[in-house]
Fold these 3 entries.
Entry 1:
Amino acid sequence: MVFAKPMRAVALASLFLLIFLIFELFHKPKLIKEPRVIYPDMKTDPNLEETHEPAGKLWRADDYAADNPNSPRINATILSLVRNEEIDGMVQSMRDLERTWNHKFNYPWTFFNDVPFTDEFKTRTRAETKAQCRYELIPKDHWAVPPWINNDLFHESAKILAEQDIQYGDLISYHQMCRWNSGLFYHHPALKDVRYYWRVEPKVHFFCDVDYDVFRYMQDHNKTYGFTINLYDAPQSIPTLWPETLKFIAAHPEYLKSDTMNARAWLEDKERRPEHNKKANGYSTCHFWSNFEIADMEFWRSKAYEDYFKHLDRAGGFFYERWGDAPVHSIALGLFEDASRIHWFRDIGYQHIPYFNCPNSPKCSGCRKGMFTDGEDFLYKEDCRPNWFKYVGMG
């Protein structure tokens, strides 16, 4: 039997309607979680309060054209360690940061890789910005496993990390990356004359218009390090990091800032997560999540930090455990730097899955104010900001 065209159209529409109704009946949409605060020692998330730009002198986007050789730009760069195959995620991150900030200030992008960048990577990244793009190869001796690391011991250690569900613990490239980010990137010849950097990784998001030069802010206000997210680490990944740190400061007490100036109490807290402190042998595991960091490389180049990194490097924990650059950077900053020189960029909306920094500001869109995660409830306990606010403040 042949149906007339109008009848066929009605039948087809009815079929689509039936499929839609069945989908709606059995599909359970993900609930949109409202921001929540579950800290007994923090009455409300500070990101629920109205957020403003930092106080003091700020440099606006005047005369910052990409082709202006006399612009107010200082010796700073946006920095990314990225693989060729991560090009889609890198372009997404660039679009967000260019849209919210860098199209106004045109700071250069510097990309690092342990293999040469492809033409496709260069073409697509250059298309996202008017600023200069630089493509750098990491020296082989910076990326290679150091000769004092025992390969058999590494593989045995990797098995233990895997049994403890430590993410990436069995990937040699991840250990190499953590070591490079901890103590080698700032020695790259391409950064020889660069002082400040903003680290950006693939697949991150930026949500807020930032209308001032963040590098100038760091310089003018004598800031060493800027962060957005502050977390606990997996203690099983760093059991000997704090004991090795104590050995180092026992040998070099001259590098320690006084306890009235440093953030040692934040590093050693055992009240909020005592099991973390116990498993990490005295370290709270609190750290700045370093996939976002705006920092002054003069701190990493200082004798205190260089000696500390060399001590850790020789101890082998970058390979026999999973020491990350985040806890290494954070411990050094907490002990060897004045805490007042560490800045929470509360006005910069940021996401690296699964965590957020979401300010309450009309300059922000795309994330809900005060949201820490859009993941499961258990992730809220990973937020270490309450400890930072308790021991240091919100500066």
Note: Residues 23-34 have pLDDT under 50 and may be disordered.
Entry 2:
Amino acid sequence: MWSQLPENKHNNAPKNPRVYDSDMPTFTTDVRMQKVGDLFATSAGKASSDEQVQGSGGGGPCEAVYWIKEKGMQWRMKGTAFIVAPDIEGGEESSGVRTVKSEAGARMRVVEGGEGKEGEWSWGRELTGHFGNCSPGMRGSWRNPPPGTPVKGEPDKDHQLAQKVEDLHDPIARSNFRVVIIKPDEVEQTDLSDPATARRYRYTFDGNAQDGKGEWKMEELWP
């Protein structure tokens, strides 16, 4: 979940203090992948220029499904997705950066003991933490030749397959690395662990509940 990186003894990136939790799952991607442009083009701002897509922003519709085989459980999430890029911190804030911090920030809750420490938490540090949470081989994938482009001869020396990146600030890998935050509005949990008692549970987020902080409302359904 965003703001809740798991403990990883192999991740030597600086970590944020424990200030926030959230209900927003994340995944990593490459800015050169089509999904990044799609999340910008289908957002409220309809951003489509190459320059806009390179930075933070997005907000297009997103749906993700997780199947937990060992538990016989499926989770389906529907909502919007936002891109976190290197411009998320430092320099003048773009409209995309402001959108990400406003939309995702609205669902980041201060944990017990985190009050008064909000200023110690860094969006840029969290982004680097996600990069460090990947293996050196995975980090190297952000130095691959551009995904989906035709193979025409040998790629240049900076974009080769099967590279391993140890440097947390490798300029080429970091320029392509992105974190996507899914901000779910509806979650369906389908429990198929026992066919005799199978159920589906729909959770809908109500942003107006609990003094404006929002809450999840659950409805039990037949699967």
Note: The helical segments are 34-41, 50-53, 95-105, 123-132, 136-140, 171-176.
Entry 3:
Amino acid sequence: MTRAQQTISLALLVTSVYLAFALHLVPVNAKIQDEIIPFLPLWSLVSFGSWLLFKLGWGVFTFNDVPQAHKELMAEIEIAKKDLKANGIDVD
């Protein structure tokens, strides 16, 4: 099963369970039915967005300095500058 199939299967499962509660197919307490279930999609969306922002922030926070990659990048920049100068373009 591919990752896309797993994601689609999980989304269908969650949607089915939510619809079963939202359409009163599963009996639950009236307070839960009226005050919690209608707001579950919004709550899920906000939670997912918060999680994504956390992951983005954590990735930026734990971004490692890689000296070897820096050296390689600087060498490529110098090669590009030399190539551009050879073509008559001033880059400094």
Note: The chain has four helices and no strands.
